[in-house]
From TrEMBL:
Belongs to the acyl-CoA oxidase family. One of its GO terms (molecular function) is fatty acid binding. Residues 478-655 form the Acyl-CoA oxidase C-terminal domain. Its main location: other. The active site is at E424 (proton acceptor). Signal peptide: none annotated. It is found in: Peroxisome. This is Acyl-coenzyme A oxidase. GO terms for biological process: fatty acid beta-oxidation using acyl-CoA oxidase; lipid homeostasis; long-chain fatty acid metabolic process. One of its GO terms (cellular component) is peroxisome. Its cofactor is FAD. Pfam families: ACOX, ACOX_C_alpha1, Acyl-CoA_ox_N. It comes from Mikania micrantha (bitter vine).
Length: 663
């Protein structure tokens, strides 16, 4: 039997309707159709071919990406694609490039932080790509601490302009995507100075390059920051360095929704919180959570298919060896990641709806849910990116030696993905933001009832004193038992930290001293959100034979896997006995055996094309070995029998007639 037959057999074992699961994964039939159509459009167009990328040099790779982006823009216009379709098209092209910044950051920054007048002027230009923008916030010496940025924007009364300046080397903008070579404009974050007074960091629209010949404008020095981790991964993007030498922009190019500077040089703070200036980061963090489920599902799809094809040991009487997916150790590493991909998918959908709700409230000048939205996006961004980065690397290991080949698709995926733990808010820094929110919520509880994702803190009294009543492994197959366990763990960890901080005379000192515990408490809170969201999703109608049942299994796998992994927390907070923790682990093993027959069908439900996976190991048809061989033969080193350099550097060594004694 060949890999092709193995996967065919695996697909026959499925206990649920795969087509219906595809819809459940996508969110709706319409969402599935749009994504499916765009995936096929990209996969079937030779312009979007990706297999030559690993052999290209940086310049060729960059140019090739520009070519694809230009062609994609033509398709978007020629085919009159909707915004949603265009988003999926860019996603399936699968190469980071300047358009990510244009659509995910530049346009949202204009939308979220521009005044109505500014939006009327700049949005049409950006939306039709007459200008190309980036988001220039981070500096050489300042990233996480936005208030610490050094770039200055000084108001000049006489000319009614701002003077944008980089006073030091360390104030150079450093990292913004698309900035080195493509962007014509940037939203530049700088410290506003009026008459010698500092008014905090604000965003300014600054033109970097001529719209005539693309040359840099006077006073602007811009370039690429150099190659990044991994070959192809992020090196298709021109992350840049940018310095300003007293560049002048009109006053009306400061983003003026949150605060304004008048012609007279008066600083006016609107009635909206200053944190709205951070709104672009909040909206991108939500996109990043959604991207996590895509990247993890991709790695899991590759590792699961390959695990069903790969056989090692266990052959009896010359029969086939055991499929590695049947090893319990393989299952215990792989299936939690499969479950996590679904969990992240559902929590990203939920986060999107939370974001929509917050946006509507902001329009109505209701800012009450902003802190919670910030904590949720920051925390979930941190949780999902960390788990996804680790998960991709685990999938590489699950594929043994072949996982290390570029043709497995996993090394490039990892290299592309891992900076998500850093950009848009470094993960630990983000978890500390969650901790601030939680500690504040606890401290305000005497006069303010916690709501939303923090509402369980309002049930602190029972949660502090309850004990788990699970007695058998089956008792763990109960959503309320699971939620109660996660709520209790989170509440107890948060309250413990809060009480210890309260003992410090200086609360900030206490917060800093307890920061490692606070990060763990925040993680517990965020895991509770993911688990509860999964459970809530299962309360909705999910059509299709066996679909809901399969998702229920995955939901329990996700929750009990976390419980097992963090059992130290659950035991230390005194909610569980070691016997109950052990019962959870027993149940987890039983659940793995329920996932096993459905594993291939579950990864098929992601509906990933072979083009998107770009993995010989993850091919839909399972024809792994012949294609691995074929991919290897295509390596440029195999172009000739005698490689360049052999005659020059190896032959002379082989031909020298040295005696051993002379060595
Ligand atoms: C195989 C190859 C495959 C290739 C595939 C390619 C496919 C490509 C597809 C791509 C798809 C998706 C990806 C999306 C695009 C991603 C592009 C990524 C580009 C990256 C861009 C960036 O990184 S931009 C820079 C980001 N920078 C940051 O995030 C900085 C982080 N720092 C901060 O946010 C703040 O400094 C921090 C919050 C840490 C502190 O702020 P500060 O003002 O000092 O505030 P505090 O004093 O701590 O707090 C004051 C109060 O404000 C509250 N608060 C803080 N932030 C917010 C907020 N955002 N909203 C609301 N409230 C906020 C805080 O809680 C305090 O509240 P309190 O009540 O007073 O306690
Ligand atoms: C691929 C990529 C693309 C990017 N694109 C852009 C872009 O388009 N535009 C843009 O403006 N920026 C961009 N960035 C920059 C990115 O936003 C920053 O790197 C990120 O915000 C982290 O900041 P930093 O590099 O200053 O890390 P640092 O904050 O210096 O982190 C270093 C270490 O210090 C720790 N640390 C920092 N502060 C604290 C604290 N208060 N408490 C405890 N520990 C702390 C962190 O946990 C980390 O371990 C990009 C970065 C990458 C890697």
């Amino acid at each position: 039997m060949e890999g092709v037959d193995y996967l065919r057999d695996e697909r026959k074992k499925s206990e649920f309707d795969v087509e219906a699961m595809k819809v459940a994964w996508a969110g709706s039939r319409e969402a599935f159709q749009v994504s499916d159509r765009m995936a096929k459009l990209v996969a079937n167009d030779p312009v979007f071919e990706k297999f030559s990328k690993p052999t290209l040099g940086r310049k060729e790779m960059f140019k090739n990406t520009l070519r694809k982006a230009a062609y994609a823009w033509k398709l978007i216009n020629d085919l009159h694609l909707t915004e949603e379709e265009a988003k999926w098209l860019r996603h399936y092209i699968d190469e980071p490039n300047y358009t990510d910044l244009q659509w995910e950051m530049f346009v949202p920054a204009l939308e979220g932080q521009g005044s109505e007048e500014q939006k009327r002027k700049w949005l049409p230009l950006a939306q039709t790509m007459q200008i190309i923008g980036t988001y220039a916030q981070t500096e050489l010496a300042h990233g996480s601490n936005v208030q610490g940025l050094e770039t200055t924007a000084t108001f000049d009364h006489e000319t009614d302009q701002f003077v944008i300046h980089s006073p030091t080397l360390t104030s150079s903008k450093w990292w913004p995507g698309g900035m080195a070579k493509v962007a014509t404009h940037a939203i530049v974050y700088a410290r506003l100075i009026i008459d010698g007074h500092f008014y905090g960091v604000h965003g300014f629209i600054v033109q970097l390059r001529s719209l005539e010949d693309h040359s840099t404008l006077p006073g602007i020095t811009v370039g690429d920051i150099g190659m990044k981790f991994g070959h192809g991964a992020y090196n298709t993007m021109d992350n840049g360095v940018l310095r300003f030498d007293r560049v002048r922009i009109p006053r009306n190019q400061m983003l003026m929704r949150v605060s304004q500077v008048t012609k007279e040089g008066k600083y006016v703070q609107s009635d909206v919180p200053r944190q709205l200036a951070y709104g672009t980061m909040v909206s991108v963090r939500q996109t990043i959570v959604s991207d996590a489920s895509k990247a993890l599902s991709r790695a899991v799809c590759i590792a699961t298919r390959y695990s069903a094809i790969r056989r090692q040991f266990g052959s009896h009487d010359g029969g086939p060896e055991t499929q590695v997916i049947d090893y319990k150790t393989q299952q215990s590493r792989l299936f939690p990641l499969l479950a996590s991909a679904f969990a992240f998918r559902f929590v990203s959908e939920w986060l999107k709806s939370l974001q929509t709700d917050v946006k509507q409230r902001l329009e109505a000048k209701d800012f009450s849910t902003l802190p919670e939205a910030h904590a949720c996006t920051a925390g979930l961004k941190s949780l999902t990116t960390a788990a996804t980065a680790d998960g991709i690397e685990e999938c590489r290991k699950l594929c043994g030696g072949h996982g290390y080949l570029i043709s497995s698709g996993l090394p490039e995926l990892y290299a592309y993905y891992v900076p998500a733990c850093t950009y848009e808010g470094e993960n630990v820094v983000m978890m500390l933001q969650v901790a601030r929110f939680l500690v504040k919520t606890v401290s305000e509880m005497s006069y303010k009832q916690p709501v939303g994702t923090a509402d369980y803190l309002g049930r602190m009294a029972p949660l502090m004193h309850n004990n788990c009543d699970v007695q058998t492994a089956e008792d763990w197959l109960n959503p309320s038992a699971i939620v109660k366990a996660f709520e209790t763990r989170a509440v107890r960890m948060i309250v413990d930290c809060s009480q210890r901080i309260a003992k410090f005379e200086n609360q900030e000192e206490g917060f800093a001293e307890l920061s490692t515990d606070l990060v763990e408490a925040s993680l517990a809170h965020c895991q509770l959100i993911v688990v509860s969201t999964f459970i809530q999703r299962l309360k909705q109608e999910i059509p299709g034979k066996g679909v809901k049942q399969s998702l229920e299994v995955l939901c329990y796998v996700y929750a009990l896997y976390l419980l097992h992994k963090h059992q130290g927390d659950f035991l230390a907070t005194g909610y569980l006995t070691s016997k109950q923790a052990s019962l959870a682990n027993d149940q987890l093993k039983t659940l793995y055996s329920k996932v096993r027959p459905n594993a291939i069908a579950l990864v098929d439900s992601f509906n990933h094309t072979d083009h998107y996976l770009s993995s010989v190991l993850g091919r839909y048809d399972g024809n792994v070995y012949p294609k691995l061989y074929e991919a290897a033969r295509k390596d440029p080193l195999n172009d000739s029998d005698i490689a360049d350099g052999i005659n020059q550097y190896v032959q002379p060594i082989l031909k020298q007639k040295l005696h051993l004694a002379k060595l």
